[in-house]
Amino acid sequence: MFENILPLYGLNSDETTVNLFGDGLINHTWKVTAGGQSYILQKVNTDVFKNPSDIDKNLCLLKDFLSKKDPDYLFVSPVKALSGESLLNTPSGYFRLSPFVEGSLSLNALTKEDEAYEAAKQFGKFSSLLADFDAETLNITIPDFHNLSLRYEQFKTACANANPERMEKAKQYVDFINAHQDLVATYLSIVDHKEVPLRVIHHDTKINNVLFDKDYKGICVIDLDTVMPGYFISDVGDMMRTYLCAATEEETDLSKISIRKEFFKAVYDGYMEEMQDVLTDTEKQYFSYAGKFIIYMQAIRFLADYLQNDIYYGAKYEDHNFNRAINQITLLKEYIKIEKELTAPLSSSAEPHNQQHAQ
Ligand code: ADP
Ligand code: MG
Ligand code: MG
């Protein structure tokens, strides 16, 4: 396959080394080294991204804007092939080649608050540099990706059509989701609020989508496939969901699901370092809601899939999605339990909105 792709970039495949690279879960990723230069070659996952050229167009628009806005900003985007295209549609799939960021490393787990701070700062910097870019000119690469209201409707449909045995087993968790519907209402009020604008949002703020240098300072964000118009609660919320707990969504020992309070502060400080002057006062009031929003949505998605016999996520073992849903519900409970303590050290503008939540 590579012998057909690399020459399209003027690379001689006999003089090139290609190795699978990184721990990304969506695309196929290889490191390509040729004549002292390294690249990242990716085959785009078209099960997830139905129109890869939509991503390519977004990256071109952003690259153009950012190169003028801040020429020193490292925006890692695909290079052009000999044909002039930055995305190649080949018989083996859609491919793109980006410069490898030399001296970079990525983390799969967060052990230090400083790393959470650095990552949040990079995601904040990205949205901050793009604050004057008209987000609505971007293509939507995954429709309704973080549309909580739709996800909740889909959950209700899943409940109505559920596998009866699974419904019986999941009953108390279904009740928990329904008892927290106010989180959906808050989402709807955010979306409708004129002081919560659509922004350029990354939408996949997992820690391995930030590149660090050897001293663990953030270099830049990568994995830009889900960059779309959205709300800042998506990026902040997925950082909360994936940075605050030392255990992942796969953990089945629920005693390990707890919140590292100092990581919440680190995410806040890093993100606000860049976004303090960009976010409206209204947005700031939803900072801690962001965590509940994304954790709740993920719980809903795992539980809905369990009730529908794992058709979307699949399952490595019988109760896989059931366990993942309980994991996320436990995380949400922990978060709600200490939300006041989490937000106490923040500046007054970031104190949570006066929202009532069923416990
Ligand atoms: P996925 O969508 O599958 O997660 P990513 O774009 O995140 O794919 O790439 C997977 C991994 O490859 C990243 O987590 C990172 O470790 C590495 N990587 C991607 N792009 C670069 C790059 N330009 N320079 C260095 N490493 C990179
Ligand atoms: Mg990634
Ligand atoms: Mg990705």
Automatic annotation (TrEMBL):
SUPFAM superfamilies recorded: Protein kinase-like (PK-like)
Cited Gene3D superfamilies: 3.90.1200.10
Domain of life: Bacteria
InterPro entries: Aminoglycoside_PTrfase, Kinase-like_dom_sf, Pseudomonas-type_ThrB
Domain Aminoglycoside phosphotransferase stretches: 18-251
Entry keyword set: Transferase
Pfam families attached to this UniProt entry: APH
GO MF, one annotated term: transferase activity
Signal peptide: none
Protein name: Phosphotransferase enzyme family protein
Organism: Pedobacter steynii
